[in-house]
Amino acid sequence: VPGIDSAETLKSLIGTTARLSFNPVLGTGKGTSPDALNLPAADQPDLTYNLDPRAVVTGEDLTDSQPSFDRNGRPAVTFRFDSSGARAFGDFTAAHIGEPFAIVLDGKVLSAPVIQSHIPGGSGIITGNFSVEQTTELSTLLRAGALPAELHFLEERTIGPELGQDSITAGARAAVVGLVAVCVLMVLSYGGLGLVATFALGMNMAMLIGLLSAIGATLT
C-alpha cells in the first residue's frame, strides 16, 4: 500500500464502516433546530458542526477520489461523482457559493471546505492545510465511503520486503545501464553537443528526484 507503512493504520482505514455523505453546514456549535445534525469534527472533537440532515450527495454517488495538488502546488484531494451525483452537486454549489459544506464519514466531519465557485461536471478539489500524508488518507477514506461495508479480520500476515528489494535492485541496475548507453550514444553521435546534452540530462534527473523526495512521492 503506497504511502502507508503501518499495519495498524491500514487496518483502521480498511476496517472503517465508511458511510459517507456531503451535507450543508448550518453553523458551528449546538443547533437550535431539532432536526439538525450535530456532529463533531474528526480532528477536533471539541468542535461541533450543525448540519442539514438532508445530504446533497452520498458515497453511493462518488466514483473516485485521489490525492493531488492545487494550482499553487499545495497538497489537495480531487473527487468525482457519477452523472446523478454530478447534477445534484453542481446545482448545490451554484446556489451556495461562499458557503461551507461538510464531508461526513461515519458520524464525524472529515472536512468542511468553502465552496469557491460553481462545480459542474461532477468533479472538484478539496484544498486546505493538508500534508501529503493527510491527502492520501482522506482520499482513501472517501473512496472507502463509496462502498459502506463492515469488515471482519479473519487472518493477518506481514510479508517481508525481500521481493520488493529484488525488484528495486533490478530496476536500479537497468536504469544505470540504460543511462550509460544513452550517454555514450549521444557523445559518439554528436561529440561536444552530446556531452552538453548528457550534462543537461543528469541535471534534469537530479532535480526530478529532488522534487519527488521533497514532496514525499511514492514511486510505483
UniProtKB/TrEMBL annotation:
InterPro entries: SecD/SecF_arch_bac (IPR022813), SecDF_P1_head (IPR054384). The chain crosses the membrane at residues 174-193, 199-219. It holds the Pfam family SecDF_P1_head. Keywords: Cell membrane, Membrane, Protein transport, Translocation, Transmembrane, Transmembrane helix, Transport. Residues 45-149 form the SecDF P1 head subdomain domain. This is Protein translocase subunit SecDF.
